[in-house]
Amino acid sequence: MKEKILHILNNMEKVNGIKILYACESGSRNWGGASNESDYDVRFIYVHPPSYYLSIDPIGIGHKRDVIEQIVSEHRIDLAGWELTKTLRLFRKSNPSLLEWLHSGIVYYQNNDVINKIHELLPPYFRPRACLLHYVNMAKGNLQKSQMESGFVKGYLNVLRPILMARWIKTNHSFPPTNYSELIHQIVPEGTAKDEIESMLKTKLAGYQTLDRNEMEHFHQYIQQELQQINAYIKTLPKKPFSNSDQLDKLFRSTLEQVFK
After folding, report:
1. Over the stretch 84-106, which tens digit does the pLDDT of each residue have?
2. What Pfam families does this protein's entry cite (predicted)?
3. What is the CATH number of the domain that holds 100?
4. Structural domain of residue 171, as residue ranges?
5. End-to-end C-alpha distance for the chain, whole angstroms
6. Rounded distance, CA 154 to CA 146, Å?
7. CA–CA separation, 117 vs 115, rounded Å?
């Protein structure tokens, strides 16, 4: 499948006149919770030639879109990419979706020079409070959905994942790994909760879809307790001002020089 995905990405470059800098898997296949029927959620970062940016019309307005999307239904491949200046503006704000792409365990392609520089810039630009708020809100929204779906394993995994991501940030003050098993192993203490989470993940991977009532009650208690602790921690964090954009501007210009030299 990797060869098929790379072929599609190569064709997208030709059709759109772009260069792809990074492409990864962002969905359940990356998290480690995929079934045989799961889609391939391919996310990528791309850049236009220098002349595209020398225009009075800004990127992202009108015909100069800053997003490219494509669905290849016969192979269950969903592709979405962000243009580089959009990417760097979101990076400046610690956009969690973008940071998850950059921490994906399944990378289809990357321009090492550019992506390594982005990773080097993560510490000064990382905004823990913004990421924590994102994951708490995601967990709450997914919890409402899971309650309406009455015990589906997938729904509870979608609640637990942002909680574990938030707990990692709270504990380690850095952006977390995106793989479920790694998060569970490193962030959940030994005990009943860890055993039940691992059991639920195995249930999903085995193709089973629902939890019994007793399991649901245990997870609700664990989820509520975690959300309370994370919310209390967020209140102690000051709002971090945006970092200077000079380094990101420099990275953008050096990328154009390197890719289109």
Report:
1. 999 999 999 999 999 999 999 99
2. RlaP
3. 3.30.460
4. 128-234
5. 31
6. 8
7. 5
